[in-house]
Amino acid sequence: MKTYTVAILGATGAVGREMMKVLAERAFPVHELRLLASPRSAGVLLPWQGGEIAVRAVEKGCFDGCDIVLGAASSTLARELAPEITAAGAVLVDNSSAFRHEAEVPLVVPEINGAAAKSHKGIIANPNCSTIITLMAVWPIARQFGLKSLTAATYQAVSGAGVGGIAQLEAEIRGEDCDSPAFPHAIARNVIPAIGSLTETGDTIEEAKMRHEGRKIMGIPGLRVACTCVRVPVMRCHSIAVSLETERPVTVEAARAAIAGGAGVALMDDFSAGIYPMPVNTENQDTVFAGRIRPDETREHGLTLWCCGDQLRKGAATNTVQIAELLV
Amino acid sequence: MKTYTVAILGATGAVGREMMKVLAERAFPVHELRLLASPRSAGVLLPWQGGEIAVRAVEKGCFDGCDIVLGAASSTLARELAPEITAAGAVLVDNSSAFRHEAEVPLVVPEINGAAAKSHKGIIANPNCSTIITLMAVWPIARQFGLKSLTAATYQAVSGAGVGGIAQLEAEIRGEDCDSPAFPHAIARNVIPAIGSLTETGDTIEEAKMRHEGRKIMGIPGLRVACTCVRVPVMRCHSIAVSLETERPVTVEAARAAIAGGAGVALMDDFSAGIYPMPVNTENQDTVFAGRIRPDETREHGLTLWCCGDQLRKGAATNTVQIAELLV
């Protein structure tokens, strides 16, 4: 069996660490795992397959011999390093937003448009976390009944902002101030309707991702999207209240059946037994869960649903490793 | 100046205590304040105008001589006691859901349909908290441009479930189990997409309130509503992500102007300065705040906005006292 030299760029971050876990769990055929981060993390030892690997600083030549680079760094760093990565002959599967909208870069959720990965020219982009989780729940319905529009209100975990987000919520829960807050306001006992800076339409960048990435991934260029992205005091798992309008008539029963038959998504919907997706029952899993499926009387063929998934897993690390699996 | 004998039914609860504060702050013309609660609270002393009032148990004759009873008790108790209250000649302004849908009972938000209070036959109902906050933000737009449909996803504070909800979140934040939890699941570090039991449509009772109360208060019997109600780990203030479709064309600028000119609602909308409504900057106030006003491309005349208000104040106690003011 062929094995691969895999590098994780940004290995010490929340997503990078999760990528290591996912590579091991899914038994990705790793020949050598190279952990790359900023110079201040160089030398940090991270556990791998019973041993340890020392983190290396990103420096000239660090991608030599790599087959696949999993990007868990900033957009700025991804843009800066991509030429070097592809010149070294590696494929960059990048979790940043740097390349998502470039026409020649596939933007892939394997369960939705896995075939798109094949046309890559050295870079494949991993979508935004809340977009992945929403689309995983919506796609089984969209594929079968078409999709005209999507309205989403998100409930996003602090770990979506990385380890700094976790540190801020933990400090505030302990009643302490956070030295270097990740959010512009307190997040404990609060919700913040502002993720990312503002675009021309009045949407934030995070809200605009749902529109532009949703259209590209599902291949529906005319999809209409209204999205409000909100940070909530939850450690892991993004939840999304979704309303959608299909092209063709759809019943609640048919939507439930579509989701129950979907890949990577599961129905969690037994209200009277207290069973519906929540952060506490969906974290540390790769599956996205959907429930609360109801008619939406505000649209011709309308449905309302609620979904929840671990944004560090399927929303980031797992989806990235799944894309890498399409390359081997 | 005429003064009134006012009773608070359920005086020791989260809403009842807030009603006392609001009566004092608004200098309601109180002749005598009578604090009523269950027998286990009898004798508890609560501060009032520099002195103290002892809580009395609800018992036969306790409403004699009352002019106005502010109801902050359960629907069951409200139904049980209403005949006695009206027989005593008092008007019941009731915060429970017991009478909201009775045709002869006005359901009133003074800034929206204050005139409806005049037609009461002894009972006036105070609407659901998340409905009041949503409508306060939506009404200035609806009044001017008409309203066809309303999609709402709520972020509701634990105090909406009374003192038990506050106790559960506080205990869980301290890392303790809660002896008598108010919610069916942990709420710290979690969100729960389930408030109230399920109705036939698949909506919860809380979600159905937005539809039925919204139609009655705004006088739009054909209003279409899709609502998802979610409990979040916030102490006070409900937030709501709203998308709406007006009857007539509306611009973002016109919607902002309508809200800025609305009674009891204020525009809080300067994103680049980090200013938008959140629980931390709207609690302990009577005003409902709205921001993040954007076009909603999923509807013909669509708008998306975000609003936030203290559900113990305008969502309950303040609105109830405002209704009582219409009676004096």
Verbal overview:
The first copy, chain A, is of the alpha/beta class. Chain A has 2 domains: 4-127 and 316-327, Rossmann fold, CATH 3.40.50.720; 130-311, Dihydrodipicolinate Reductase, domain 2, CATH 3.30.360. The first copy, chain A, is built from 9 helices and 14 strands. Chain A has helices at residues 14-25, 75-87, 110-113, 129-145, 163-173, 205-218, 252-260, 279-282, 313-327, and strands spanning 4-9, 30-37, 45-48, 51-54, 56-57, 68-71, 91-94, 123-125, 149-155, 224-228, 238-245, 265-267, 288-295, 302-309. In chain A, the strands form 3 sheets. Chain A has a 6-stranded parallel beta sheet with strand order 5-2-1-6-7-8, with helices on both faces. In chain A, β13 and β14 form a beta hairpin. In chain A, α4 packs across α7. Chain A is globular and about 60 Å long. The N and C termini of chain A lie close together (10 Å). The mean pLDDT of chain A is 97. Chains A and B meet through β9, β10, β11, β13 and β14 of A and β9, β10, β11, β13 and β14 of B.
Structural key phrases:
homodimer; 2 domains; 328 residues; 6-stranded parallel beta sheet; Dihydrodipicolinate Reductase, domain 2; alpha/beta
CATH-assigned homologous superfamily of the largest domain in chain A: Dihydrodipicolinate Reductase, domain 2
* Oligomer designation: homodimer
Q: What is the percent of helical residues of chain A?
A: 25-40%
Domains counted in the coordinates of chain A: how many?
2
The largest pleated sheet of chain A is described as: 6 strands, parallel
User: H/E order of the elements of chain A?
Assistant: EHEEEEEHEHEHEHHEEHEHEEH
Strand segment count of chain A: 14
Could you say what the CATH topology of the largest domain in chain A is called? Dihydrodipicolinate Reductase, domain 2
Biggest interface, which chains? A-B, 53 and 53 residues
Which range does the strand content of chain A fall in? 15-25%
Global shape of chain A: globular
Number of helices of chain A: 9
